[in-house]
Specification:
MmRce1-like; two-stranded antiparallel sheet; mainly alpha; protease; CAAX amino terminal protease family protein; about 65% helix; membrane; transmembrane helix; 9 helices
Length: about 300
Amino acid sequence: MTTSLSQATSTTADVIPNHVRSARRGLILFFVFLIPLSTVGYWLTFINGKWIVLLMWTPALASLITRLLLHEGFADISLRLGGRRTLKSIPVVFLLPIAVGLTAYGIAWITGLAHFVAPKTYLIAHPIAIFILFLLANTTLGTIYGLLGSIGEEVGWRGYMLTRLIDAQVPRPVLLSGIIWGVWHLPLMLVGLYYASPILFLSIVLFMISVTSFGYVIAYLRLTTGSIWPAVFLHSAWNAIIQNVFDLFTQGDSVLLWTGESGVFVALTLLAVAFIFSRRQCAMLRTLPKQGEPLV
């Protein structure tokens, strides 16, 4: 099926097909388990931030329990790599976070709304050299380390919820999946454990724009490659590059207003990126075809 992400949904029939009923039943059960599991995950994280990895795995746990109870199987998680389609996604996975960072944070640095400041390290080198070193380390080792958490989220969000929203014929499934993903993060902002400026309401709005927009890009990789791995790696690379590099090298009195995932420039940059990806015509792969079958 060739369509755009902004139109990624199924047609509605007079009689609801069995696969649509099944998908809707799966979504209901998924959220029935996700809410209490996430509540426990947040409670533990509020006590000790080290529990954040467990919290990130609650979407996967909810989806796996649902699959088992409904006898859905695990094949459509799409753990296969996807061949050349996945290889073509590598530039997006690693260059997009860097491009967004240089654009959004670069504007803040150039305008003086935030300042480029190298953190204190044992290295004696020019700040730009230290920045490049941190960038290389987090693009590689940081991304690999971050897979521990990103796999948990993506198996649940894009490996189950997104595809079920599409199968259930929910209007604008990609947009809705991004909104749900963003709302799921909000408790961390409300208790002050996530990036937020003193204007909390504005931070929440900007964060929702950023996450929902980023959701379009991750969904694009998931649906065009037929594999969950590009989404997993992009999620991990984003966290490593933006949070461990660009945020680390940015300081200022209003830094959280302009930069970070709840910052003005990041939100606007991701919104522009989402618009580009959402308009692209592409072949949507619900799952990878079996050996010998055509991709489209």
